Here is the input.
Amino acid sequence: MAAIPLTGRGREVAVFLIGATNAMQNGVVNARLTIVYADGSETAVDLVHPDNFDDFLVPALQPANECFYFSAGCHGIVQRIPVVPERELRELRVEAVANEVIVGILGVVCVR
Here is the structure.
């Protein structure tokens, strides 16, 4: 697990990420993004192949998120996480849950 510090408040956190997965990880939680607030409460999003997560080296097949193509098949995903606007943000936790899964965070933006 990795933690990225966050500050401030907002309506949502947009996470630009890439992932490596395979057909054996289909339909199960591949990774988890967790927003941790200053008061210790959390909001989590499970990344499940092929619902909202897929392999960055093949054309996008997940329908839930925006994709950005780097080349003919290589792409990144923008996962938007709604957050509680009244709560101060502390960190984003990134965790690969399934075996043989890699998650790379390319950018994080707090939308105010």
Remarks:
- The chain has no helices and eight strands.
- The domain at 2-111 is CATH 2.60.120 (Jelly Rolls).
- The chain has one domain: 2-111.
- The longest strand covers residues 102-111.
